[in-house]
Specification:
Blueprint: E1 2-8, H1 19-30, E2 36-41, H2 48-51, E3 59-64, H3 71-80, E4 100-104, E5 111-115, H4 123-136, E6 145-151, H5 158-172, E7 179-184, E8 202-207, H6 214-224, E9 238-240, E10 243-247, H7 257-267, H8 275-283, H9 285-289
Parallel strand pairs: 1-2, 1-3, 3-5, 6-7, 6-8, 8-10
Antiparallel strand pairs: 4-5, 9-10
Helix pairs in contact: 1-7, 4-5, 7-8
Length: 291
């Protein structure tokens, strides 16, 4: 038997924070890729520390539904899952290349294939493109459009910016969009000045966040000038400084995100059969890739 455990942050304050995690888990259950699929959270139930006791399988693929490598993926999750053999060097990562480390959960004895975060997997680039398709309603979106990939950014963890820049660079190399730019909330270049970084009349803005919440629903729309008060709402697109801004909301709410979780587990050795192809077919993944 093999099980998938998805580890996400969750929130005591935002009721919808965990919704994408449950939705993606349901998508994976529907394609029968694993004998068991469990959600777990830092700030909600079921908690990281308890979830393995609800899993019957001896072999577990643990995938963090986080955007970047850092404090949660390198310290909190291994500690709470009691992966006592863990050390960050096992991933041999440059900040965006974490793959998998096979460990034993100290209290349950299960074999844990601890995967790198979903946010740094190459398939996340396809989810960002799919998000642009979803918000514009155009499966061929790209020509005449700029794309802004937005992250939080922080001077406390350089890997936070690396993940954003990594995907912006990968998408830029495809020459699909006229312009691609990584922008941030808390470091330069800042999302406040989004229109200064693009010549394109149309700009799709995709925040690389797992779930919608305070930053994606309040801060970013107000910072970009879509609205003076997020409570009054805004149009999609909204014209700002002569540019039409197509704001997508959090990338993690895109249904294709389930594919990234599956691909992380498959890269770690999970036998998922044709589940990846089925999820892409059902969520539009082939279109995002241009297959």
């Amino acid at each position: 038997m093999q099980a998938l455990v998805i580890a996400a942050h969750g929130s005591h304050l935002s009721a919808g924070s965990s919704t994408p995690t449950f939705d993606h888990a349901d998508t994976i259950r529907a394609v029968s890729a694993f004998d068991e699929v469990r959600e777990s959270f830092w700030k909600e139930e079921p908690h990281f520390r308890e979830v393995l006791r609800t899993v019957d399988a001896d072999e577990v693929y643990l995938v963090p539904l986080f955007i970047s490598e850092g404090y949660f993926t390198e310290q909190v999750i291994p500690r709470e899952f009691r992966l006592d053999e863990w050390e960050p060097e096992l991933w041999d990562s440059d900040g965006t290349s974490a793959d998998t480390a096979t460990l034993t959960a100290e209290d349950t004895g299960q074999t844990i294939h601890y995967c790198g975060p979903a946010g740094t997997h190459d398939a996340m680039s396809d989810v960002i493109v799919q998000r642009a398709q979803s918000v514009t309603g155009d499966r061929d979106v790209g020509d005449g459009f700029g794309l802004a990939v937005v992250g939080h950014g922080t001077e406390r963890n350089e890997n936070s910016a690396k993940a954003i820049e990594y995907h912006a660079d990968r998408i830029g190399e495809r020459d699909r969009f006229d312009e691609v730019q990584a922008l941030f909330m808390d470091e330069d270049p800042e999302i406040d000045d989004v229109t200064e970084y693009f010549e394109s009349d149309d700009i799709v803005v995709v925040p690389l966040f797992v779930a919608d919440g305070y930053h994606t629903e309040e801060d970013i729309p107000e910072d970009m000038g879509l609205t003076d008060d997020y409570r009054t709402g805004y149009d999609v697109p909204t014209t700002v400084d002569g540019h039409d801004i197509w704001y997508s909301g959090a990338v993690g709410t895109e249904p294709l995100m389930a594919d990234v979780l599956l691909e992380r587990a498959a890269d770690a050795g999970a036998d998922v059969g044709d589940a990846i192809q089925r999820v892409k077919s059902e969520t539009g993944g082939a279109e995002a890739r241009g297959d």
